């Protein structure tokens, strides 16, 4: 093995003007002499650097290029010598952490709400009780000292101290070090792993913990935490103490006989100055009811109570002296009612949640009572659904349809409601969701969902996006639709009318947002129609009433039922007895356009061009178009760019004309709504306004008169003004807004003046004509002289 001498390299480096080219030449000289000596070329794949004196581990040789004096890489196959280098010793290190900084991150970064500390500590106590109950099946002696399994919370409001005591399994000294002294090591997770490895792997468990950091949430509100614990497997009781922002903790043996526990754990929190409000007994009780109401073990809180009793009142000395003088020896003593105060334990939680019971055993009254109590409602729900889902995702749920919408809260705009309460193993997690479990158009659905294996983040406050959540959402939505469908099929139509009045807009929004559930939403929609102006009908009822040769579902969008039933678009359809849906809600038209069809029947807007009513007489239409072709061109010339074209109408019977919208643009109703939007851009409005087609009724007298004028070839100003007036009138009758209302009003006034002058101005003109025929003549007149007073002239 040849090595480049260190002396030659050092000599080059000592020169002030030494360059990489000189250094490379020295190395190349050495390698060249190696090749000249007859060494195998393959040995070049294992060369030594003159700088590190170590073998190149990459199995490639850097060769010197004589032309430019630089090293050039070249790759060779690996050799046995190269493989030997992989046997070099490897040193393994463990990650290190600054404990105080890590604790600060765990306490202040994982949790967004301080009050969850009580939920975490109660969950730990519940796990300890569950472990004891499970182990006592095979080791009954573990619970011989204390059979009661419960959790007790006591507060000291004045000193800011909270004490949480459980009669669970407790911890030994080593378990204190392992569980509380080792961050992110979960004793519950370790216990579950042992269960899986044992023969009891299939046993049901209700253990909550999984991350090993819930205990440290106590430092959210406490400066100091003391944990006294006694395990039935040990004769000694130990006390663990730790402080916030500290990297050390202490463990000592408890020697005070008054503080000894028969079994279990007692956690004492010394609250921070700003968080002493958590030591209020009422606040603790409310937190337990909110987060841990359905924990499977009884939770007692130390509460102040009172009872009323009567006590004697001392007599007034003056009255006693007076009574003695009067000789009254016997008198009834005076009493008053006082409230006697005392402190005692009070059961705060319910033992078994209603959703864990068999639905067959729960009455309607119990469901309604649970609904009112959980969601602070005063009316019974319209419907409820209690179900259990098994398989890939397992969860239990109770869903409700409220009987009335929330007052002062528009769920369509603000869909982040608190209507769904999520529990994991009966522990409340959150009710603040942004569409994870229900789409926003079903945000009015209320209920509870309880699962054992939801993907939560470490703080157990955020539901992570995953396939499990998507499956759960899909099944919840299906159950919600089943409930609503049950209401719609009920014999009592008033129930669904009340539902539609409160939540109909939500379902219409679902037509826009949720294409996957169109088939579930469509049967639930309700509309007025030309044949049912007072009572809404479903799409199923419309389809049943369709004519045998009717292919489409017709609709017209307007601002009210009155406007819809008086529109000229309906004339020919009413003659044919074709039913037309009235879309009078602003969201109706957009919902129907997104729905597109129902039971293979397309939705058709009768205010759009190319309306097909069936039974076409092509020969008659062709003849009519040829007859009025010149008239249509004449009218189009007069109207100019106001309309895209003038056509013969097949939808009018009594009106002279109508203005229809383009097939792919906004209707008159949609144009009106978009103009009312404060964010509407003029350019977008102009673009989407679409083409307008002026349709005329060739059988109307006005159109026939205009046709005669056109055929005569005279440019009559009155006829041209009549065309302008027809267009403006068609704008209004078709639902559009005139571009110049004042000008349109002036035309109406002028027309009224002409009509009135023709009717009432004829006698005046006749008298003038008679006077002109008589010419100038003599008139007799009586001269009356003025009279003076007293009869004198």
UniProtKB/TrEMBL annotation:
The keyword Lipoprotein does not apply. Residues 319-330 have a biased composition (Basic and acidic residues). CDD domains: HATPase_Hsp90-like (cd16927). ATP binds at residues 120, 124, 166, 171, 186-187, 210-215, 265, 460. It is an enzyme of class 3 (hydrolase). PANTHER family: HEAT SHOCK PROTEIN 90 FAMILY MEMBER. The keyword Transferase does not apply. Residues 313-332 are annotated as: Disordered. Belongs to the heat shock protein 90 family. Keywords: ATP-binding, Chaperone, Hydrolase, Nucleotide-binding, Stress response, Transit peptide. NCBIfam families: PRK05218.1. It comes from Opuntia streptacantha. This is Adenosinetriphosphatase.
């Amino acid at each position: 093995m040849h090595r480049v001498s260190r002396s030659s390299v050092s000599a080059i480096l000592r020169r002030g003007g030494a360059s990489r080219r000189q250094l490379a030449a020295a190395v190349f000289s050495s390698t060249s002499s190696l090749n000249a000596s007859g060494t195998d070329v393959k040995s070049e794949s294992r060369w030594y650097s003159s700088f590190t004196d170590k073998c190149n581990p990459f199995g490639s040789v850097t060769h010197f290029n004589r032309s430019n004096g630089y090293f050039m890489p070249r790759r060779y196959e690996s050799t046995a010598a190269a493989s030997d280098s992989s046997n070099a010793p490897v040193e393994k290190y463990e990650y290190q952490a600054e404990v105080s900084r890590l604790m600060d991150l765990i306490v202040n970064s994982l949790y967004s709400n301080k009050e969850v500390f009580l939920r975490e500590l109660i969950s730990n106590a519940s796990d300890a009780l569950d472990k004891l109950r499970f182990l006592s099946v095979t080791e009954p002696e573990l619970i011989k000292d204390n059979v009661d399994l419960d959790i007790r919370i006591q507060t000291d409001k004045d000193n800011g101290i909270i004490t949480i005591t459980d009669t669970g399994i407790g911890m030994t000294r080593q378990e204190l070090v392992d569980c509380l002294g080792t961050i992110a090591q979960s004793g519950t997770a370790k216990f579950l792993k042992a269960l899986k490895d044992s023969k009891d792997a299939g046993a049901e468990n209700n253990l909550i913990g999984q991350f090993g950091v819930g205990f440290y949430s106590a430092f959210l509100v406490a400066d100091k935490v003391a944990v006294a614990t006694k395990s039935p497997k040990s004769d000694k009781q130990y006390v663990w103490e730790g402080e916030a922002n500290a990297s050390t903790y202490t463990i000592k043996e408890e020697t005070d006989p008054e503080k000894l526990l028969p079994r279990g754990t007692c956690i004492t929190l010394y609250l921070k100055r700003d968080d002493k409000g958590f030591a209020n007994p009422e606040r603790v009780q409310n937190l337990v009811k909110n987060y841990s109401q359905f924990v499977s073990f009884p939770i007692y809180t130390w509460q102040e109570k009172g009872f009323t009793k009567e006590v004697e009142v001392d007599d007034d000395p003056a009255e006693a002296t007076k009574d003695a003088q009067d000789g009254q020896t016997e008198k009834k003593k005076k009493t008053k009612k006082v409230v006697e105060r005392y402190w005692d334990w009070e059961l705060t939680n319910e033992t078994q949640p209603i959703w864990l019971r068999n639905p067959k055993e729960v009455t309607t009254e119990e469901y309604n009572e649970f609904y009112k109590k959980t969601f602070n409602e005063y009316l019974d729900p319209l419907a409820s659904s209690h179900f259990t889902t098994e398989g890939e995702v397992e969860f239990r749920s109770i869903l409700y349809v409220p009987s009335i919408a929330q007052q002062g809260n528009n769920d369509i705009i603000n869909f982040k409601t608190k209507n769904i309460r999520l529990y994991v193993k009966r522990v409340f997690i959150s009710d603040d969701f942004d569409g994870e479990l229900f789409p926003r158009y079903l945000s009015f659905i209320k209920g509870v969902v309880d699962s054992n294996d939801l993907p939560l983040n470490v703080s157990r406050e955020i539901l992570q996006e995953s396939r499990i959540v998507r499956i759960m959402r899909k099944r919840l939505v299906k159950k919600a639709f089943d409930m609503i469908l049950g209401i719609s099929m009920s014999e009592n139509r008033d129930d669904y009318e009340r539902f539609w009045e409160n939540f109909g807009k939500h379902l219409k929004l679902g037509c826009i947002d949720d294409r996957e559930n169109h088939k579930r939403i469509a049967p639930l929609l309700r509309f007025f129609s030309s044949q049912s102006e007072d009572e809404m009908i479903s799409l199923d009822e419309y389809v049943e009433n369709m004519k045998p040769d009717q292919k489409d579902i017709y609709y017209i969008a307007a601002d009210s039922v009155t406007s819809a039933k008086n529109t000229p678009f309906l004339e020919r359809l009413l003659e044919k007895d074709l039913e037309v849906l009235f879309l009078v809600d602003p969201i109706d038209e957009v919902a129907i356009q997104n729905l597109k069809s129902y039971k293979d029947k397309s939705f058709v807007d009768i205010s759009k061009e190319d309306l097909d009513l069936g039974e076409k007489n092509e020969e008659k239409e062709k003849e009519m178009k040829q007859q009025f072709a010149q008239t249509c061109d004449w009218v189009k010339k007069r109207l100019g760019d106001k309309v895209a074209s003038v056509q013969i109408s097949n939808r009018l019977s009594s009106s002279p004309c109508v203005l229809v919208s383009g097939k792919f643009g906004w209707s008159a109703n949609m144009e009106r709504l978009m103009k009312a939007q404060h964010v509407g851009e003029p350019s977008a409005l102009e673009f989407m306004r679409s083409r307008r087609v002026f349709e005329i009724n060739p059988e109307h007298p006005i159109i026939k008169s205009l046709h005669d004028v056109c055929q005569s070839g005279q440019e009559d100003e009155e006829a041209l003004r009549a065309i302008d007036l027809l267009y403006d009138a068609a704008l209004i009758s078709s639902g559009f807004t005139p571009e110049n209302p004042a000008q349109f009003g002036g035309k109406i006034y002028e027309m009224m003046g002409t009509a009135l002058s023709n009717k009432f101005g004829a006698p005046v003109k006749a008298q003038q004509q008679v006077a002109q025929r008589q010419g100038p003549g003599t008139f007799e007149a009586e001269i009356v002289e003025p009279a003076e007073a007293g009869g004198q002239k």
